[in-house]
Design goal:
3 copies of one chain form a homotrimer.
Chain A: E1 4-9, H1 17-28, E2 33-38, H2 46-56, E3 65-69, E4 80-85, E5 88-93, E6 107-110, H3 126-139, E7 150-151, E8 163-164, E9 168-176, E10 182-187, H4 188-195, E11 201-205, E12 208-214, E13 225-229, E14 234-239, H5 244-248, E15 255-260
Parallel strand pairs in A: 1-2, 1-3, 3-5, 12-13
Antiparallel strand pairs in A: 4-5, 4-6, 6-7, 8-9, 9-10, 9-15, 10-14, 11-12, 11-15, 13-14
Helix pairs in contact in A: 1-3
Chain lengths: 265, 265, 265
C-alpha cells in the first residue's frame, strides 16, 4: 500500500516550489502518493493554514504524513518538528501551524538529525531541504523518535474562543472560503452546550440579522443570506448562489451571534 | 492497473475542499490515481463545467471515473447521480453537468444507497460525503446498478445551437480560455454540413471582420486576430501572442458568423 | 518503480488542458506518476519557464521525463524536441525552453515519428497531441534515438549575464516569486569569482541601498529589506514578512549591484 503524504503551504502554484518538494519526496520514497491540501494559504498566515489542516487531516487514511509549511521564521530560531496524533503524522515548523490538531495524546519531536535532510540545507527553503525529505523518510518507515528529542511545549496559536452570557453566544468569523461563505468559530458543540442544539436559533452577523439556522443552502431564496452548520460543523453565513462576504461586506474577525428565537406574541 | 478518478469542480484551490475529497477517495480506494481536470470553474457555473468535462473525458483511459461537482442545489431536491457512457463512468449531481456527454446509450442511476456514502452526510458538501466515496467504490469495482434506481430523465442543459440561413452560419462564444481565445459553439461538423469544409471561409465576430480560417496560430502576424478550428474541433477566435478577448472586447454570448468568402471581382 | 513525468506549462489551471495531457499520458503509460512543476508561467513567457525548469529538474529522480510546453510557435516552424541531460529527459518545443539545462553533454532529437503522437495532431495543442504522448512513450522505455533525427543546434535563449568592473558586480532581476522576492541573475559562483565569497558584501537594487547579504530572512527586522543567497544559489532581495517587489516598486530587469562593503573610517 502506497504511503500518502499531503502538502499544505503558502507557496502558491505559480513558482516551482511545490513541484520541487514533490521531486525531493519521490527521490526518497518513490512509491509515495503526494496529495495537495492547498498551496493557497495567504503568505505567512499560519492561522489560516492551521485551520485548513485541522479541517482536512482526519479524512486521510491512518499513517498519512501531513506536511505543512507556512514558515515566516525559516532559518531562524523556530524548531522544525514532527508529531504523531490520531494515527497520522505531521511535519512542519513548530510555529503553531498544528495547534488545531496536537491535543493531549500527541507526541512531538524536534527534527535534529541532518541525516534525514538534504545534504545542503539552505536558509530559506526548509520545505525542500528538511520537511519534504523528513516526510519521505517517515513514509518509508522511519520512527519519529529517531528524528530528534521530544518537544513537550509545542507552540500553540492563541485563537479567539466564543463566549456565552446566558442569552447570546458570541463568536467571530475565522475563515472565508472561495464562495464567500463566512465561517465562524462557533461549532455545533458550543451550540449544543449553550442551547441544547441548533433548533429555533437565530443568527446575527455584525449588526445585521441573518435569520434562523437552515439545514441546506436551498432553503434560502436566491441571493438571500442564511446561517448553516457547515461541513466542518461550524456555523457559517452563506448567500444562496451568491457571495456572503461581498453581499454583507464582512471579513475575518466580524462578530457572529446566536440566540434563541423569541416566539412572536 | 490503478483505477483513475478525475475531479472537476468550482471549489478553487485555496480552500482544503479538493484535498479533502482526495483523502476520502484514498481512504476507500488506496490505489486510485486521482487527476484534476480543473477546479477553476466559475462558482456555480454548471455550463462551463459541462463544457470542460465534455472536452476532456475521452482522453482518459476506459473505466476512468469522472467526478464533477458544481452543485448550487446541494442539499436540495436535485438527485445525486452516477452514469456510464463510452466506457467511462460519471459521478455528480443530476443538474445538467453531464449534458454534453450523456447521449443515447448512456445509463444513469440515482445514488440512493447510503452504504456507499460517508457515515454522516452534511447538507453542504456532497463532494466529500457522497460523490468522492461513490467514485471510490466504483473504482473498486462496485457496479453502477447497485447504487440506486435507474434515472431515465437526466437533466440536460439548454445550450445555444448555431443556425444557418443558407448563406451565413451563426453561432456564439461559449467558452473563453486563459489565453483569451474565444471558443464558439460552431464545430467542424456544422461547417462541413453548411459549406462542405472550412476552405475559403471567412469569420466575423460581433461586428468585426476577423478574416479567413487559418490552420495554425503562426499564420497570423503578431497581435493579429484570426479564426481557427481549435483542438476540440470548435471554431475559435485567437490573437497571435495576444489575448483576443481583451483585444476585441468580446465575451461569452458574442455572435460569431461564418460565410463563404466571395471571390474578388 | 513508477516512472515520473513532470509538467511545466503556461496553461493555467482553470481550463481542462492540463488534465487532458494527464489523461493522454495515463492512457499510454498507466503507471506513470505525473507531477506538476507549475502551470502558472505567464502566457508565452518562454524565459520564465526555462528558469522554473532549471531550478527544479535536478530535484527529481534520474530518468524523470520533464515536459515543458510554453509554445507560442505551436503549429509553425519550430521543431518539437526531446533531449537527455544529467540522467533526466526533456520533452517540449525547441524554442529555448530548455536553454538553462541543455549544456555540453546533452543529446537532443527532433520528434519526427508520428507513431508516437496521437492519431490526429491539431495545429494548436501539441501538448496533448505530441508532447504528452511522446513523454509517456519515453517513460515506457522508448529510446530517444527512435523519436527522430539528432538536433545539433537546439535553440538557446539570450539571457542577460552579470558584469564585473573590478569593483562592482552588476546584474538584474530575472524572476519574482509569489512572495515578491526579487531574484537576480547573480549567483554564488559569480560572487565567489569576483569577491571570493559573499562575506562583507553590500547590495544595491536600482538606486536604493539594500544592505549586507544575510543568511536567513529572520536576520532582517519585520518589514525591512535584505539581500540573501536564495535556495537556488541566486542573490535575492527580500522583505521580511513583506513583499519586496511591492515595497521597492521594482520588477523584472531592475539593476542589482554587489560590492565590497567599505570599512567605516
Amino acid at each position: 500500500m502506497r504511503p500518502v503524504i499531503t502538502l499544505t503551504t503558502d507557496f502558491g502554484l505559480d513558482d516551482p516550489f511545490v513541484g520541487i518538494m514533490k521531486g525531493v519526496i519521490l527521490s526518497i520514497a518513490p512509491d509515495a502518493e503526494v496529495v495537495d491540501i492547498t498551496h493557497g494559504i495567504r503568505p505567512q498566515d499560519v492561522a489560516q493554514a492551521a485551520y485548513a489542516i485541522k479541517s482536512a487531516y482526519a479524512y486521510f487514511p491512518k499513517k498519512t504524513v501531513h506536511v505543512a509549511v507556512v514558515d515566516p521564521g525559516v532559518g531562524g530560531a523556530r524548531r522544525p518538528m514532527a508529531a504523531e496524533y490520531d494515527g497520522r503524522r505531521f511535519v512542519g515548523p513548530d510555529n503553531g501551524i498544528f495547534s488545531g490538531i496536537l491535543g493531549p495524546g500527541a507526541r512531538a519531536y524536534e527534527l535534529a538529525r541532518p541525516r534525514y535532510f538534504l545534504k545542503t540545507v539552505s536558509g530559506t527553503f526548509h520545505g525542500r531541504d528538511i520537511f519534504a525529505p523528513v516526510a519521505a523518510w517517515i513514509a518509508r518507515g522511519t520512527a519519529l523518535s529517531k528524528l530528534g528529542p521530544r518537544i513537550t511545549d509545542p507552540r500553540v496559536l492563541d485563537s479567539p474562543k466564543p463566549s456565552f452570557d446566558g442569552n447570546q453566544l458570541k463568536g467571530q468569523i475565522v475563515y472565508i472560503d472561495r464562495f464567500g461563505n463566512l465561517v465562524s468559530n462557533i461549532d455545533s458543540d458550543w451550540m449544543d452546550r449553550c442551547f441544547s442544539g441548533p433548533g429555533n436559533l437565530t443568527v446575527m452577523a455584525g449588526k445585521k440579522k441573518i435569520g434562523p439556522i437552515l439545514t441546506s443552502y436551498s432553503q434560502a431564496r436566491r441571493g438571500q443570506c442564511g446561517g448553516i452548520v457547515n461541513s466542518w460543523g461550524h456555523l457559517e453565513i452563506f448567500c444562496r448562489e451568491g457571495n456572503a462576504a461581498k453581499c454583507l461586506g464582512y471579513g475575518i474577525s466580524e462578530t457572529v451571534a446566536v440566540s434563541r428565537e423569541r416566539a412572536k406574541p
